[in-house]
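hiii so my PI (J.) wants the whole complex modelled not just the main chain, which honestly fair. so below is everything: two entries, each one labled with what it is. i double checked the lines twice but i was tired so who knows lol
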Amino acid sequence: MFGTDIVTFSVDLLIIYAIYLVVSLTLNLEAGYSGIPNFGKAMFVAGGAAAAGSVSGRLSALLVGINVSGDYSNNVPLIINKLNATLSANPILSVEILLLGVALAAGIGAALGYLASYPAIRLREDYLGMLLLASAQFFQIFLRSYPPVIGGVQGIEIPDFFGWANTGVGTRDVVILGVVTLFAVSVYVYFEKIARSPLGRTLRAIRDNEVASRALGKDDVAMRKRVIVVASAISGMAGALLTFYVESVGPDTWSRQDWTFPFWVIIIMGGAANNSGVAIGAFTYAFLLKAIDKGKFLFQGILPSTTFNYLQYIAFASLLILVLALRSEGILPEKPSFTLKRDTIANLLQTKPIAAEQNPDDSPLKKKN
Amino acid sequence: MAIGLTLTYLTTKVPNFAYGSFVTIGIYSSLSLYSLYGISPYGALPLAFLLGSMSSAGMYLGILRILARRGSSLVSLMIATLAIDIGFVGVFGLYSDYLYTAFRIIYATNFPQLPGDFSLFGVPGIVFAAPYSLVLTTLCLFALLTETKFGVAMRASIENPALAKVLGINVEAVYIFAWIIAGGFAAMSGAYYSLWLPGGIDVGSKLIVEIFASSVLGGLASIYGAALGGVIIGASEILITTAGVDVFGSSVGIYQKGIPLIFMIITLLVLPEGLISIKVGKVLRWTRMLPWIKLKSLLRLRGGN
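here's the output for the full assembly
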């Protein structure tokens, strides 16, 4: 029971971890570094997932030559096997559609982020939080009620764009793991670079004191817009990758308790504005999630499986409140801003002040007579 | 519901995302009493009020006050309320699982409207009961806040807590009272809700959007504004959707829940303080000026002095 089981469990866990990590990092950028309370994260991930899911499926049907006479959603179960077979035989086509799906997800995510940035600039935190929460809720209702996008209530199956990797036992999952790991690592490096750069310091300055940073000439409006757009685009991509992994997309997944709240737990538990902390938090959360899944399996006859979901909500809610009360900085607190190394500063001090002494009129301060 | 939310906002300055779950408490009180003992949801009102107010006070005392004293930021407090809301959903889920395993009630997680309403002139009683309750509640609150000593103390505590404390008012007691009323009102609304609309474990969580839209529309800092906002949002949802369906066909029906969202967006962009900030005097004076202006220009044209 534990032989191959633990390998599949680990691979699944790591894939989910990578995706959760990416979304948590984007929330960390928005909320931790820039102070934008995004209570509607689910919307941006869902947008990317829906875009990738609905378009890539239709596109592959078109390219493979199947005519669905305008009604894709209902015909999916009939054509999915044929699509999978054709895609498995055509790795290049699969990868092309895959990349297109992810790019489109990024685009839709960015567009949604752009829309969300207008209120983000004007509203105070409490109103903004409420507005984003409301938008995410309505977006889920929209996905559920408007069938042309992702099949309405039941959702749709997505063809397997990694089918060409099915050369051995579970190799498809390993290939996906490779792809998402690459994605997660790139995002992590990218965000860490931002955090340690002058841009990162500017964001934190804007977060801590908007008026002062504006007085110093920083355009907080433009910065916030950019942050939301980038964060939403990347969240969309994560949603797309998740969709391609599970080979289906439906509206019921993207609820507030499943795709907004967990990331807040992660960044607060791990440490807001600290990407390493978020990495730890995300792993803890993903691990607990998967462990609870297994637990459900073990208790199958004794308790209804839904009990574990509910216990999960209560457990994570309590965990979050405990962290807020006892250690609000999280596991790894925010580090102070990184500046130049001491040697560099010493070197600079040795050259610059001498220049100032020699040419006092070059001083930036105007001397009054 | 909006009145209660505004009460919690006025006292703590934190939007309470868990407020919707207090409504769900009322819904589940009705369900329990009805399925287990056959009592109509009207009979559940006292129980609902009790449970709702206790949970509300518990939330304030146990969690928010402690976090606020530790200096948590506004966003942290908001997240805490969000967490409490999700915790509540879990609790309701566990309770419905319990109802299932102990009493074989299979529909506890998602159930249709409860019967047990009375009929007045052939129309369900709730159509009269709910609006009258609202008017009665608002009037009572108004009387409380303006006529009684405690009510005046309450207004003082909300407007200027520091000064109120100096005057010897027990501001904490006032806040606790406000939260008790807020939770109780929410739960009672929940009991009414179960008579008219289907219930479930996350009904309250979903409602929070509309409750917030109502409060914002009326003015987040005004109790009467909240009442007004609630009525407008509730009415518009139904009226606009019905009108839309008449004009565009039934596919428009899905956007019903988007109406509060749109109201909220418009309010925040155009009138951030809510309807209550429209100075009626100013508007009236402006309209009264119009005939005078016309008269003046007429006289001038005639060359009058």
